[in-house]
Amino acid sequence: MPEAGHTIAIDGPAASGKTRVGRSIACKLGYWFLDTGTMYRAVTLSALNEQICLSDAVKLTGLAKRLIIDFVSKGDNDRLLVNGSDVTDKLRNREVDQNVSKVSAFRGVRNALVSQQQKIGNRGSIVMVGRDIGTVVLPQADLKVYLDATVDVRANRRYLEAKTNTASPTTFQNIRADLVDRDRIDTKRETSPLVPASDAFVLDTNSLSIEQVVATILNRLRRD
């Protein structure tokens, strides 16, 4: 259990570097780390496994409410459990990638998971990343950061990651199209759209390495 410390909210679009940055900061500070996007991916994966129609808001909401989602964070290795089973390695397959923004757009799904996220955030000493952390989940966070980058830069980052996974071959064009679609859904959804919090530190990561982004955020934390 980390000693009492700050709550840090990091938001931004897909492939903006939130997860790697957030995990690195949490590791350096000895904090908890939670990528809330994995929780929405867990609901999406479960819906696909149970063959629930991904446009059925009622069934998806019911699913989100009954799933027992927990995480185990150990240094730079965090694992997500659903009903006691580790599903971490299945959360980033292409079918989940293509559907997670649609599932997460439903108000009932978001409300069910935000409630769980806020309980986890109340532990303190945590770095939490997602798309509505500073605006909805942890509006009183000690530091709110919004990471941004162009869609081409983000698509290239995701493509380079995907090239190491021969089990899920894809192309830059497919990844870029997916990101454009996810950006549209995330920014236009009625519930908790993706926007920087009014008091967020907005950081353009186009030309910055992960190490540079981490250092910039830690310097900001010390100043604040």
Q: What portion of residues belong to β-strands?
A: 15-25%
Under CATH, the topology can be stated as Rossmann fold
Q: What strand order characterises the main sheet?
A: 2-6-1-7-8
Number of domains: 1
Summarize the main sheet: 5 strands, parallel
| CATH homologous superfamily identity | P-loop containing nucleotide triphosphate hydrolases
Segments where pLDDT lies below 50 for 5+ residues?
none
Termini Cα gap: 24 Å
Query: How would you classify the quaternary structure?
Result: single chain
Q: Any idea what the shape is?
A: globular
Derived from helix and strand composition plus strand pairing, the structural class reads alpha/beta
Task: Give the averaged pLDDT, no decimals.
Answer: 91
SSE pattern, N- to C-terminal: EHEHHEEEHHEHEHHEH
| Secondary structure tally, helices | 9
Radius of gyration: 17 Å
In the CATH hierarchy, the architecture is: 3-Layer(aba) Sandwich
The level-1 CATH class: Alpha Beta
Name the helicity range. Answer: 40-55%
**How many β strands by DSSP?**
8
Short description:
The protein is α/β, with parallel strands linked by helices and 224 residues long. The protein is 49% helix and 17% strand.
How would you describe what is shown here?
- There is one protein chain.
- By secondary structure, the protein is of the alpha/beta class.
- The strands form 2 sheets. Strands 2-6-1-7-8 form a 5-stranded parallel β-sheet.
- It has one domain: P-loop containing nucleotide triphosphate hydrolases (Rossmann fold).
- The chain has 9 helices and 8 strands.
- The protein is globular, with a radius of gyration of 17 Å.
- It has helices at residues 18-29, 37-49, 57-66, 94-104, 107-121, 133-137, 151-162, 172-188, 210-223; strands spanning 7-11, 32-35, 69-74, 77-82, 85-86, 126-130, 143-148, 201-204.
- Helices cover 49% and strands 17% of the residues.
- The model has no long low-confidence stretch (mean pLDDT 91).
- α2 (37-49) packs across α4 and α7 crosses α8.
